[in-house]
Specification:
heterodimer, A: 363 residues, alpha+beta, Rossmann fold, OB fold (Dihydrolipoamide Acetyltransferase, E2P), six-stranded mixed sheet, 9 helices, elongated, B: mainly alpha, MetI-like fold, two-stranded antiparallel sheet, 75% helix, 1% strand, globular
Chain lengths: 363, 292
């Protein structure tokens, strides 16, 4: 249990590659925070700095208010799981899991008890006596996770632990991790580039790109109110639709003018439209919030379906209007390519971003 | 047509004939000849006559106290010497990886350690012979430091002295192998172990050494084979003396066959010595296989 605080952490490799750029982040005690971002955004470096495997070029790291920036990893009492399972060679599964306890010179009976306990949680009891070289990646990662949880450290750092694991084990481990975190009430930081993992697991999500923190908030907040277009695009499957547009006023009614189509927005007050309508805007809407109709509707936009992508029980329709393509995620339906479809962008789901800065425009 | 076909069949045989002939002439025939000779009593300097003695030569070798004590010296020399080379080489390799971060410095230090190995055995032996005489440089330094001079080539110490010189020259080989093995261990293992709170000692015992054991077994095997056939330094530094104090089986064998010209006896001895080598190699091979 610990509160982790990063203060203006910056890491530059070889005097030229800026991996983390002035990151300030507070991970609450007992919180499960997910660092989310594309490959190379600095999430792993951030984790390694928290673990003590890298020292920041500038900035400080605090655990419970105590500066640990100079404390070596073995003294920080953190556990880290890497993307690819790190198994100690030549040791059995039992010896692997027991290793951190052996390192702490714990009594043999206590070690046995704890290893068996954790093996049960990860459902690997029957593997305990086995050698590790024959295990597949999923099983190996289970062993590694068991080794991490067996010692109950202050902070758990999980660096894309489920990426190298097969989908079935991934689902299984996700559930176990979520349960363990809520049962143990431990501080956990979870790095991933898979936004669905972030949304299901985390209490709070920190979205990063190019070494910087773009947004930090609850999954709901990050999903519904992205700070900028990157967050909107990166979180969600598929990401937000973005349409370059401007706001115009005709007959005292606000109109969204996207060149290829116009959309009436009677709900928007003309004064707001006047205030923000002067500059170029980007309007964003999540595909699941786009409403579609297979018959003509008044004031709805006519489009042509160019592609339908089934995703489980839903289907993503690619709707073409002029040069623009809008994605709509709807309950599964058969649509012929080329079919006419009418869609509507409900005002309550529209997010406005500045065309220049890509930052959200607050209403 | 038929001729063409038969020529085609013969071509591969023509192609491999030169090496075949060479192997038969210089390897297989001498081996068979040595077996034949080993069943005879023969001293070519006295008479071309060979007397058949059956397995008499073999029985005599196994009863020969001089041969058996040479064998004992060989096991002391190889066992202790090679073990020290291996331990020292591994320790230096690990220290280089642990304490020298800059790649340029690492290369420099490695090359320095490798230099003795690049020296011809005879040159190294000659150089050390000059250094260890009673009034040689080493003793001068010892006296200057306030110690009494050491009789490096005295009966009790001579074999150990040769062993030390061999360690000086050949520690670099296990060092090189250990270095290669150590840098092939993924960093993730060390990072994970450190985060697990393992001490340096535990990491060495549980991760580094288990990971390196096969390359180290191979290094041991290579050095053991070299020390088994070891002759040059004994020949140059002590010529087996004082007395028989540094007489290794190879040297005794050489003496028997080419100084005393007891050729049949020498052949029997070389076969016994060879068979011991095969058994030892077989044993090490099994061990290495089990470890991997």
């Amino acid at each position: 249990m610990a509160r982790v605080f990063l203060e203006k952490v910056r890491k530059v490799f070889d005097n030229k590659v800026v991996a983390v750029d002035g990151l300030t982040l507070e991970v609450p005690d007992r919180g499960l925070v997910s660092l989310l971002g594309p490959s190379g955004c600095g999430k792993t470096t951030t984790m390694r700095i928290i673990a003590g495997l890298e020292s920041p070029t500038s900035g400080r790291v605090y655990f419970d208010g105590q500066d640990v920036t100079e404390v070596p990893p073995e003294k920080r009492d953190v556990a880290m799981v890497f993307q690819f399972p790190v198994i100690y060679p030549g040791m059995s599964v039992y010896e692997n899991i027991a290793f951190p306890l052996v390192a702490r010179k714990m009594a043999k009976e206590e070690i046995k008890k704890r290893v068996e306990e954790v093996a049960e949680i990860f459902e690997i009891t029957d593997l305990l006596s086995k050698r590790t070289y024959a295990l597949d990646a999923g099983m190996k990662q289970k062993v590694v996770l068991a080794r991490t949880f067996v010692r109950r450290p202050k902070v758990y750092l999980l660096d894309e632990p489920l990426t190298a694991v097969d989908p079935k084990t991934r689902m299984e481990l996700r559930t176990i991790l979520k349960r363990l975190q809520s049962d143990l009430g431990q501080t956990m930081i979870y790095v991933t580039h898979d936004q669905s993992e972030s949304l299901t697991l985390a209490d709070k999500i920190a979205v990063m790109n190019e070494g910087r923190l773009l947004q930090y908030g609850s999954p709901e907040e990050v999903y519904s109110n992205p700070n900028n277009t990157f967050v909107g695009y990166f979180v969600g499957n598929p990401g937000m639709n973005f349409i370059n547009c401007s706001l115009a006023i005709e007959n005292n009614v606000c109109i969204l003018d996207a060149q290829d189509f116009r959309h009436f927005l009677p709900e928007i007050s003309p004064s707001f439209a006047r205030e923000i309508g002067q500059r170029s805007l980007i309007v964003g809407i999540r595909p699941e919030n786009v409403e579609v109709s297979f018959t003509p509707r008044e004031n709805w936009i006519t489009s042509q379906c160019i592609l339908s992508e089934p995703i489980g029980s839903r289907v993503v329709l690619h709707l073409k209007v002029g040069e623009k393509v809008i994605k709509a995620k709807v309950p599964r339906v058969e649509v012929e390519p080329g079919a006419s479809i009418w869609f509507h962008l409900p005002i309550e789901f529209l997010k406005f971003f500045d065309g220049e800065t890509q930052e959200a425009v607050k209403a | 047509m038929l001729r063409e076909k038969s020529r085609k069949i013969k071509t591969p045989y023509y192609l491999i004939m030169p090496p075949q002939v060479l192997i038969w002439v210089v390897v297989i025939f001498p081996l068979l000849w040595a077996i034949y000779i080993s069943f005879h009593d023969w001293n070519p300097t006295i008479s071309p006559q060979r007397t058949f003695v059956g397995i008499g030569n073999y029985l005599n070798v196994l009863r020969d106290a001089r041969f058996l004590s040479a064998l004992g010296r060989m096991f002391y020399y190889s066992g202790v010497g090679v073990t020290i080379q291996l331990v020292l080489g591994t320790a230096i390799a690990l220290a280089i990886v642990e304490y020298i971060r800059s790649p340029r410095w690492r290369t420099t230090v490695l090359v320095l350690f490798l230099l003795p190995m690049m020296m011809a055995e005879a040159v190294a032996a000659q150089m050390w012979t000059l250094l260890i005489t009673d009034t040689g440089t080493i003793n001068n330094i010892l006296v200057w430091l306030g110690f009494s001079p050491v009789g490096w080539r005295a009966k009790e110490l001579a074999l150990t002295t040769i062993m030390i010189v061999d360690i000086w020259q050949w520690t670099a080989l296990p060092l090189l192998i250990a270095y290669a093995a150590r840098i092939s261990i993924p960093d993730g293992l060390y990072e994970s172990a450190r985060l697990d709170g393992a001490s340096k000692w535990l990491i060495l015992r549980k991760i580094t050494l288990p990971y390196m054991r096969v390359p180290l077994a191979i290094a041991f095997l290579l050095r053991f084979m070299d020390s088994y056939k070891f002759l040059d330094k004994v020949f140059i530094m002590t010529y087996g003396g004082p007395g028989t104090a540094t007489e290794l089986p190879t040297f005794y064998l050489y003496q028997t066959a080419f100084s005393y010209f007891k050729v049949g006896y020498g052949a029997a001895m070389s076969w016994i010595f060879g068979i011991i080598a095969v058994i030892a190699m077989f044993f090490f091979w099994r061990l290495a296989k089990r470890m991997s």
